[in-house]
Specification:
This protein is mainly alpha-helical. It has a domain at about 1-140: Alpha Horseshoe (Serine Threonine Protein Phosphatase 5, Tetratricopeptide repeat), CATH 1.25.40.10. About 75% of the residues lie in helices and about 0% in strands. Helix 3 runs antiparallel to helix 4 and helix 5 runs antiparallel to helix 6 (about 95-105).
């Protein structure tokens, strides 16, 4: 955790101090829980002591039992009620915590601890207006509650109510002129409003009060980039690296900035150093992947990786990540070139094979994809998933016998591989061997009862065949349990109802399927079929035409339906 977050975490903990204080405190003072005879086990002090013991041990259920007993014995004790409300909150019993806090406020509406707890509970329940009201009351009663200014200001920031957020932080600074957090968040508010000069001043003040923080530097960097202050940007990145040489994010950002601003010599030096460190510091690659690839900043990632490859041109990891970056940029040929430099020994090799195969498919070059996979399998004959991918390619190119033989080879290596079994079932279906296809899908479901794809495929197959429609309905509904928002499975259920003659039910379900997958020609045609059965020929024609406009391949049957409706309307 960096310094800023650590300091802020400590500050935030203040608000919940009394939630956990019982874990470290001795039994309550006399004025809070009045002890009687040590022999008397029916008084508040005894039960409070038992509560303390059990909550220290982490047994919150028993702790709550004893604390409630203590409250029963001393129902006027504000202290005990605070402890109980806090304990309920720790146990995630939010409503009970809220009710207990309200009991305290009923006794004393200006009890600051209770108001803080009440506001925090309301905030967690998304009852924001009540949370804001509670926090405002806290500040009015006790203006020294620094963390509450931050909590209230944070709510206004989330609401993008910059005026009120600014007002709260200014009040905070009136009472706490040395609050680095107050200056930081006031800077954030001004930055959001476009008041960059004021924001800069507040961030600089934050650094004056807390020189080791990274976040205000990052905010200043953003401002200076907008203002074109290149030297200031570089200076701040270098400061961060001087404070922490292991700050990989700052090093990567500096390298990217050098590249972007045409400072190629400086960029090369930074990126070469990072590249040389990747072997001993894998965190560099993890950070690069997380910051730039996962956030889909593929342009920046590709620039960084190309620069790093100058320092480590044979690095398989860098080539793999470069392939991912160029794939994200839809530069398929460049991606393939990088992926092909990932050797068999790499941890990413298997993934690389699939990426190359898919990229060739997307380029419409299935034959090259097949040749590539055959070459891979020649060197790695015992990988069933390579055989699965080759079988899928054969299937897509209608070489069904080759697909069947390849998938069977894969099953010879891994007889219970559900992906191979499922794919072979599809091949059997395309070969017209429905019985074999059904048996494969049943086998998949036996091995993986929650396999939504197999459940749906089998259910839809039954519906298409017009057999076992009750079982078809059960299978598809089971599939929807695991993928409730899947448009294709929803379509299957609608089609089962259609086959059962339940046209109104089918209409409702198929309309939902079209909402989920608006442009699928099969689903659109199914909806047209239902409207036709319900006698709404105009709607049927509308959806048939939509289906035709999205259909690829054979459309003779659909065209026949459209022609029939058009001719009928013209009579």
């Amino acid at each position: 955790m960096n310094a800023f977050l650590w300091k802020m975490a400590i500050s935030v903990m203040v608000i919940f101090f009394f939630l956990s204080c019982a874990a470290v405190k001795t039994p309550a003072p006399v004025e809070q829980v009045t002890p009687v005879s040590a022999q008397d086990e029916d008084n508040a002090y005894y039960f409070f002591t038992e509560y303390n013991i059990h909550q220290r041990q982490g047994d919150f259920d028993k702790a709550a039992y004893y604390l409630k007993k203590a409250v029963e014995r001393d129902p006027e004790s504000i202290f005990l009620l605070k402890e109980l409300s806090a304990l309920y909150l720790r146990m995630n019993e939010t409503q009970k915590s809220l009710e207990t806090a309200q009991r305290i406020l009923d006794k004393n509406k200006e009890d600051v601890d209770a108001l803080i707890l009440y506001g925090r509970i309301k905030q967690s329940l998304k009852q924001i207006d009540e949370a804001k009201k509670a926090y405002r009351n806290v500040i009015a009663i006790d203006p020294t509650q620094e963390i509450i200014y931050l909590s209230l200001g944070g709510i206004y920031q989330e609401e993008q109510d910059w005026e009120n957020a600014s007002r709260v932080y200014q009040k905070l600074l009136q009472h706490f002129p040395e609050s680095y957090a107050g200056y930081f968040y006031l800077g954030k508010v001004n930055s959001e409003q476009g008041n960059l000069e004021q924001a800069e001043r507040h961030f600089l003040k934050t650094l004056e009060l807390a020189p080791d923080l990274e976040e205000p530097r990052m905010e200043l960097i953003s401002i200076y980039k907008v203002q074109g202050k290149t030297n200031e940007v570089v200076r701040l990145y270098k400061e961060m690296l001087q404070m922490d040489q292991s700050n990989i994010g700052a090093a990567l950002a500096l390298g990217a900035y050098y590249q972007k601003t045409g400072q190629n010599t400086q960029a090369d030096a930074v990126l070469k150093d990072l590249a040389e460190r990747t072997e001993s510091e894998p965190e560099i690659l993890r950070t690069l992947a997380k910051v730039y690839l996962e956030s889909e900043e593929f342009d920046t990632a590709s620039v960084l990786l190309e620069g790093m490859l100058k320092g480590a041109p044979e690095s398989p990891d860098l080539h793999y990540l470069s392939g991912i970056a160029f794939e994200g940029l839809d530069e398929k040929r460049k991606a393939i070139a990088h992926f092909k430099k990932v050797p068999v020994s790499s941890q990413f090799y298997e993934n690389t094979v699939f990426h190359i195969s898919f990229l060739y498919q997307e380029l419409g070059d299935i034959e090259t994809a097949i040749l590539f996979l055959k070459g891979v399998i020649a060197h790695s004959p015992n990988n069933p998933m390579f055989l699965h991918q080759l079988g899928a390619l054969y299937e897509e190119s209608d070489r069904l016998d080759d697909a069947e033989n390849t998938l069977k080879k894969g099953l010879g290596l891994d007889p219970e591989n559900v992906r191979l079994l499922f794919r072979l079932g599809i091949v059997y279906d395309k070969q017209g061997n429905k019985e074999a296809s059904i048996e494969q899908m049943k086998r998949v479901i036996d091995l993986d009862p929650e396999n939504a794809s197999a459940l749906n495929y089998l259910g839809y197959t039954y519906a298409e065949m017009g057999v076992d429609l009750d079982e078809a309905e059960r299978l598809v509904k089971e599939a929807l349990k695991y993928k409730p928002d899947d448009g294709y499975i929803t379509d299957s259920l609608g089609w089962v109802y259609f086959k059962k003659g339940l046209y109104k039910e089918a209409l409702k379900i198929l309309k939902k399927a079209v909402e989920l997958v608006p442009d699928d020609p099969v689903i659109l045609e199914h909806l047209g079929d239902v409207y036709l059965k319900l006698g709404n020929k105009n709607k049927a024609l509308e959806f048939y035409n939509q289906s035709l406009s999205n259909k690829e391949g054979d459309a003779l049957e659909l065209e026949r339906k459209i022609k029939g409706l058009v001719e009928e309307a013209g009579r």
